[in-house]
Amino acid sequence: MTKITHYASTKEIYGKPEHFDTFSSFCSFLTEQADRVYENKEDNSLFSLCSFQGKRTNDNALGTDLFGLDFDSENNSIEKTCEVLDEMGCNWFLYTTHSHKPEHHKFRVILELSEELQSPQENELLFNHFNQMFVTKDIVLDEQCKNMSRIWYLPCSSSTHLKCVTKQSIHKQPYEITGPLEQELLNKEKWDEYERAQTEKKQERLAKKGKKAKDNAKKKAVQ
Q1: pTM tops 0.85
Q2: What's CA 162's distance to the chain center, in Å?
Q3: At what angle do helices 178-222 and 120-135 cross, to 10 degrees?
Q4: For the purposes of burial, counting CB atoms within 10 Å of the CB of 204, is it exposed (0-12), middle (13-18) or buried (19 or more)?
Q5: How far apart, in whole angstroms, are the C-alpha atoms of residue 152 and residue 159?
Q6: pLDDT digits (tens, 9 = 90+) for 79-94
Q7: Contact yes or no for 99/39 (Cβ under 8 A)
Q8: Which residues are registered as beta bridge partners of 95?
Q9: CB 20 within 8 Å of CB 1
Q10: What are the backbone dihedrals phi and psi of residue 104, each rounded to the nearest 5 degrees, phi first?
Q11: How far is Cα 47 from Cα 66, in angstroms, rounded to an integer?
């Protein structure tokens, strides 16, 4: 079951939970939202891709089978991103944001996952996986996607720019996350081990430097 939380504005911290039986029904909901027109994006409502135990914070985030990717970099393109998404072979929904323009594509993608992410730490590990994947295709992700409690404006069209564009793939399968999470956890452990080793080496160098300074001071005192 797909779970999201609605918010009337960015200032709201206790939202309204909503459930969808399938990823397909969630995508239908987003498609309907895209027909609404707002002059300012701040007039639109927002949503998070999970529910919360209490107010909206990372620590209060509950499990979610959704993952959001944000594409704001000037060199990104919808067409190239859709090619990568198709190569991934999973279900996804793409919509352009309020400030999207033909010369600067701005859009978001929501992926259906094979199982629920259980913590902000898992969310960050999965972001690292996707980030590396898209970087190899010269596509840049917004780093804020690491934040599990992040809120997103619902799809809508701009009265001053363009109609919201939506694209979707809903007849494949959820993105399998078990392998990527295990690999990213292993990468993190290796990186942590490397950082510990570097810290130890630095401490050893400082200790030797301090000892040498003390020895030199003693020699001078004897002279």
Answers
A1: no
A2: 25
A3: 90
A4: exposed
A5: 19
A6: 999 999 999 999 999 9
A7: no
A8: 108, 166
A9: yes
A10: -145, 95
A11: 12
Tell me the residue length of the chain. Answer: 223
- Identify the band that residue 193 occupies on the pLDDT scale cut at 50, 70 and 90: low
From residue 141, how far is each of 50, 59, 128, 145, 158 by CA, in Å? Answer: 20, 23, 10, 8, 23
Task: Rounding to the nearest 10 degrees, give the CA dihedral for residues 163, 108, 55, 58.
Answer: -170
Helix axes 120-135 and 78-88, enclosed angle (nearest 10):
110
Instruction: Give the angle 17-6-66 at the CA atoms, nearest 5°.
Output: 75
Q: What tokens were used for 128?
A: 């690292």
Q: What angle do CA 47, 119, 199 make, to 5 degrees?
A: 125
Check: CB of residue 88 under 8 Å from CB of residue 136: no
Residue 112 contacts by C-beta under 8 Å, 6 or more apart in sequence? 2, 23, 65, 66, 90, 91, 92, 174, 175
